[in-house]
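Record type: monomer structure entry
Structure origin: computed from sequence
Chain ID: A
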Amino acid sequence: MSVQVNFVGSGDAFGTGGRFNTCIMVDGKDVRFTIDFGASSLIALNKQGIAHNSIDAILLTHIHGDHSAGIPFMLMDAMLGARRDRPLTIAGPKNLEARLAEAAEVLFPGSNAMTPKFPIHYVELEVGVPNTVLGLTVTSYAAKHTWQTDPTALRIAVDDKIVTYSGDGDWTPDLPKATQGADLFIAECYFHQKPIKWHLNYPTIQEHKDAFGAKRMILTHMGPEMLAMAGKVPEECAEDGLVITL
């Protein structure tokens, strides 16, 4: 059974190369979900002609703007413009609902008075154990990133495929647990040589490449230095609009 992965947004936090923030859309047989939904994700979806009402779930790795701040925009449009009438599930780190509500109120003061006419289900993913979300098996692993964001890597079983995304974060011994046997490992690769605290870079990925044990790896979330090298390294590198089938 095939699973389709669309890199709707593959950029870093600062739009390097004109790329959109992280938004990785996955289509299984019965479910469409995104991994993360950064601030520019609604724009990226509109550019591709993808209706956000078609998304069943959003799975978040952590609460940073370039990975989660598109949700308030999506929800506002779902209520006011797109007129969503079907359930939406949002799953991610602890205190998820409260933190997204806080972000929405900062971005759209007064929006907390609005009540959506569609059900929103919030699921706090327990770290280190399988969680069931709309028929998906989602296992989160603690990541080494800004601790206030409750960072995780996600391993997602969809139909008969496994997709793993590192999220943002430096190497930890837990990362190979998330990637072993995965059909696709999407790896943050922020810089080509420069070490950046709380992020993976190319030398670290090379050092641990054999430990990942994934069938396919694609690098994403590239900063200026790495983006300049994207066509020169042997690994696959993401770009906005890249669609692959597993």
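Annotation 1: The chain has one domain: 4-245.
Annotation 2: Residues 96-107 form the longest helix (12 residues).
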